[in-house]
Amino acid sequence: MTEEIDRVNELTDFISTKTGVKGLVDAEITEVPRIFHVPSSILSNNRPSDITGLNLTVPIIDLGDRNTSARNVVVSKIKDAAEKWGFFQVINHGVPLTVLEEIKESVRRFHEEDPEVKNQYFPTDMNKRFVYNNNFNLYHSSPMNWRDSFTCYIAPDPPNPEEIPVACRSAVIEYTKHVMELGAVLFQLLSEALGLDSEILKRMDCLKGLFMICHYYPPCPQPDLTLGISKHTDNSFLTLLLQDQIGGLQVLHEDYWVDVPPVPGALVVNIGDFMQLITNDKFLSMEHRVRANREGPRISVACFVSSGVFPNSTLYGPIKELLSDENPAKYRDITIPEYTVGYLADIFDGKSHLSKFRI
Questions:
Q1: Burial label, 140 (beta-carbon count in 10 A; 0-12, 13-18, 19+)
Q2: Contact of 258 with 56, CB cutoff 8 Å
Q3: Which residues belong to any copy of the Fe2OG dioxygenase domain (predicted)?
Q4: CA nearest neighbour of 73 among 82, 62, 84
Q5: pTM for the full model?
Q6: Is 60 exceeded by the pLDDT of residue 51?
């Protein structure tokens, strides 16, 4: 009880500053507050001393060549990565390097604005399309994460430009336009990787929704005590992530935490829970996390391709064409909002929310 009271008091103090994790660093703290402390057993990489024979490299796939024979190779590589890793990186994906650099710089600009500017975007209105949030898990019992974030809902109902802060307005609009175009290409390739018609995922409205979360990870004085983001899976069909050169992203592969190293100009693609559900476990939504760093700030831009968290009555279940007597449905049909409500309630509790919908 005493520990919980202490935690609540520390949390109250942190919230009252209204300056986020960046504010702690600006105050030149030398020790990470206890509300951020993560047990050492959780921070462990679980990495064996002898990794001989283990392939611990996240696949990198070149999307540049679109002729028929090259496309078949790309589809085969995506199929393999989606089935074994749930993660891959894409290069020559068509998003201009200037657009990638500008969105990273704009995220930095916003997070380095005066607190008075950022605090205008606190989540006071459920209808806001752009929200600044110090930490998504403020009121959970789990340790807090070493980051500040903002969220912007892009589709199906795009925000008015003036709803997005000037610091990142043009970059957000331009970058997400390219993400939607790349998402359409990736869904075609994933459809073909399932052995199905290239438009099936698009017809299921998998590309209908898009929201982005832009993280700012300040340098951490004691990175071995906390995490940038705790382990979790994504409530999306697909997630496209742009990370800067600092690194810290890890994916859980064969019970080992494997680094997803920054590759200049690349985008990280990972399978989300909804994709695992509709593919009946053929494509895997894998747990991942972000380590804290002494370097910083680290910038990342995550775009979640989903059918949205807003009212949506569409039922999603395993794709019928993938089912057979030998491969019956493993999940019941659900709506995305139904799934999301429960997912957000226990996002960092260390358990798979998707497993709750197994038949």
A1: middle
A2: yes
A3: 208-307
A4: 62
A5: 0.93
A6: no
